[in-house]
Amino acid sequence: MEIVYVYVKKRSEFGKQCNFSDHQAELNIDIPPNPELAEQFVERNPVDKGVQCSTSMSEHEANTERFEMETKGVNHVEGGWPKDVNPLELEQTIRFRKKVEKDENYINAIMQLGSVMEHCIKQNNAIDIYQEYFDDEDPVEVTDEAPSAKTINVFRDPQEIKRTTTHLSWHPDGNRKLAVAYSCLNFQRAPAGMGFESYIWDMEHPNKPEMSLKPSSPLVTVEYNPKDSHILLGGCYNGQIACWDTRKGSLVAELSTIEFSHRDPVYGTIWLQSKTGTECFSASTDGQVMWWDIRKLSEPTELLILDITKKEMLENALGAISLEFESTLPTKFMVGTEQGVVISCNRKGKTASEKIVCTFPGHHGPVYSLQRNPFYPKNFLTVGDWTARIWSEDSRESSIMWTRYHMAYLTDGAWSPVRPSVFFTTKMDGTLDIWDFGFKQCDPALRLKVCEEALFCLRVQDNGCFVACGSQLGTTTLLEVSHGLSTMQRNERNIASSIFERETRREKLLEARHREMRLKEKGKAEGKAEDQKDNEMDVNLEELVSKAEAEFFDVIFKELKRKEIDALRKKQQHKGEGEEEELEDQEMKAEEEEGREEEGEGEEETQA
Questions:
Q1: Peptide bond into 46 cis (omega under 30)
Q2: Fold of 149-486
Q3: Which of 66, 259, 482, 513 allows an S-S link to 148, with CB 3.0 to 4.6 Å?
Q4: Where are the chain's structural domains?
Q5: How far lies 146's CA from each of 143, 282, 445, 601, in Å?
Q6: What are 196-245's pLDDT values in tens digits?
Q7: How do the residues of the chain divide into helix, strand and coil, expressed in percent and rounded to 5?
Q8: For 169, what's the count of Cα atoms within 13 Å in the CB-facing half-sphere?
Q9: Which residue from 417, 369, 407, 419 is spatially nearest to 391, judged by alpha carbons?
């Protein structure tokens, strides 16, 4: 039987190295025949030999024909739909159903099939084909196992100059492959000779990548097309958008022109839910969101400047560091910025003010991760600075739940696709935290030290069993979480919904209370300002009144003195010169007194 073992690694990479050398053959010993030994030979005659009637049987082996396995793909399409109707589009299917239900042939067919279906239903009611007659054992209760995780595989960057793992994307069909983007995000610190290639890994073959992606600039993000698993979308460090078709090889199939691309690295790329499956959009730290069609990547189909002042000025735009889009909400998307603000946008808006709906300020640094809860899209998770926060669209002033401030910086986060109360976060100290706020809210349910270097990104598989974490040195670790963390718990959806509603209601009450306190403080401040103004006005009025009174009495005193002098002049008209001299002296004295009074008034005015 043929036994074959294929060595994937090089011989120099495992075990003790064997050193072989090539040299000519040499004779170590030569024993010639001895003729004396031939004389000692004696022929034995007769010879006894036992003979068996049947043929002698010894150890035998039977080798069956080799089984050759062949893998073929089948493109399954949901039956009953015409070619022009996409069964994934809800509006088209509803419109087609309404059209068919109005058809008379449809009604007649339903009436004819109704009797057959009724007969089958009655049979099922009479005989339960799924009944277990010999199930005497009690149902086994699910035990509460402790949360745990184990390492399955490690994918290391094949390049000699190690780069940071910046983004991960699972294969949409079967999740057996993982696309990994590698790049150096330190501004102008990329080492000389650093490679640009990113890779697609197979989970069962961690030693060598299945395929390489060769862009013109290092990839910051990479995403599989959910409708066509052969198509990948990438955002480059120089701002270009690249597209690959794995059937055509490692080279770029489509590439956007530099003139119409982003000006900074593309930190977010997401596929849109469309009929053609070729539409996508991207975001960058240059403050722009661009929509693309991969059939024509020469220029974007649409553009949005992230200026929250709604003036569409690029110099005022906030840099986008993360992007979120939920297919169930086709017109809405959210952007996490470098300034810690989350911007909620509406694509169907006609003007800039209509496209930027609202903002959620909450982080002290860049929002590295932004994702809606897959079960409750109104609630979304953000990761930035030293905390992870859970928000509700109904409460815009602050988050409804948040983790405590960690010692290490948080770098990425994601919800579990199978459990509404579980999410994952990665940190700069190389640890992965798994949170279950239905179990406890102050601390993570499981903290796992993945590697010694910093973790930069993570991605959860669609079935929730596997988590891939990318590190600073290009190592991607594949972890398998325990059954309890990847299986929906009993009544978990109701518990998560009640927690979200309770925290949203509490936050609304706190916001209303803070609003009242701010209004009271504002009223007090305005009242103090008014009192101060009134006091100043009273002081000014008193000064004006006193000044007017002084001027009034001065005028009266002057008039009285003038009248006295005129009366004296009339009396002394018939008197002599001596009397005129006395009159002149009195006038001089009166003038001196007036001068003294005027000086006193000037001093009082200066003092006032």
A1: yes
A2: Methylamine Dehydrogenase; Chain H (2.130.10)
A3: 482
A4: 149-486
A5: 9, 40, 9, 95
A6: 889 998 888 888 888 888 888 888 999 998 888 888 999 998 888 899 88
A7: 30, 25, 45
A8: 29
A9: 369
